[in-house]
Amino acid sequence: MTTEKQWNKLTPEEKFQERARQWKFPEGLPFASPDVERAYQNRVQMLLDAVQLRKPERIPVCPSAGFYPFAYAGVTAEDAMYDYEKLGYAVKKYHTDFMPDVRGSSLLYGPGKAFEILDYKLYRWPGHGLPPTSHYQCVEDEYMRADEYDLLSNDPTDFFLRRYLPRIFATLGPWQTLDTLTDIQELPYTGPSLVPFGSPEMEEACKRLLEAGRAARDWLQACVAIDRATMANLGLPGFSGGFTKAPFDTIGDTLRGTRAIMLDKFRQPKKLQAAVERLVPIAIDCAVRSAAKGRNPLVFIPLHKGADAFMSSADFRTFYWPTLKAVILGMIQEGLVPILFAEGSYDKRLDIVADPDIPAGKTLWTFDRTDLREVKKRFAGWACIGGNVPVSMLQSAGPEDVKTHVQRLIDDVGRDGGYILSTSAPMYDAKPENLHALIETGKKYGV
Fold this sequence. Notes:
This protein is 55% helix and 7% strand. It is built from 21 helices and eight strands. It has helices spanning 4-9, 12-24, 34-51, 68-73, 77-82, 84-98, 112-118, 149-154, 156-168, 187-194, 200-234, 247-254, 258-267, 269-278, 280-294, 313-333, 350-353, 372-379, 391-396, 399-414, 432-445; strands spanning 123-126, 129-130, 137-138, 242-243, 298-303, 337-342, 364-367, 384-387. The two termini are 37 Å apart.
């Protein structure tokens, strides 16, 4: 076991190698057989080889499961968020029947009961504002007001505690009455700071929070058991061990909302820039902590607001890329591999993001609509790439169409290493025969 002091003395490459070792050889996991264990280790090694721009034994086949396991297993998404036996059944059936090279995490879907207890306003989810078979949906609003940038920049934790969380969790509304907790320093100031905790409203909020915490604990225990069973019995590693976000997206997605942040670029650009810069170390820390829990160096970053259609290249260079780049470099220093999912089109961004300051073989980029042939021209020898299998094709085309598409994709961009076969986005519906065609063609043709 490496101590914190020993860990801090390691180089970034040594940290990565240790994280990779923990991923490949998971401590305490009882594999069903030696063959399953070897298969697990081989899949991890294929992913590591692809990320490091080597030619793996075979191209890793990594479709994004999304909510498809429920449609395939005949279980509603609502069932999966409330009934963990049904969640486990659907996840097991999907992975057993299709056998991709990575498992989809059961943690993706969230605990419906805990959300209900807290009266979660930021999302609608299956059975709670949406049909039982739907997937969840963000409800954008200005949960952070236009005049609150300084509050966020000065103390993000205090802002989340006393303003943001009470707005997105109605049950926690009484938290808005709290004083700033940094006031609790000397004895004369401590008593008044404790008073808000004694109100009946605060007492009820704390009771409901404890109830939600217990519900979330039950959910987490169930999900960990489900995912460990998938690893131990089928030999399927997780694709990512953690999660973080681009600082601009942290504000634009769920604090200010898309419309508001796009106006802020013009109305208060300096405050917006200060805020995204303040969020860089928080984003890095989130990646480090989540990857340590997942024991996997790959960390997922969905890029929501950086697409061509959202802002000009000049604004991308000013507001979006500098802090995202800082997060990427900070993660690499900690031995992590960012998985950057470029949603939408990044045709105008490729020359920007293929940044020579970012070392080669340390990032993995998956693309939605950006042509991977153009990506390959700029990323060859620099970063691992994937994507471009349209989820619409899996739903509407035929198996031969899928097979032809996959073969062409591998021929165009996958023969020299540094490539994974993946879907353009998470799957929500697909013809089983098409998904079989994707996975089987990738495994046979990608040797």
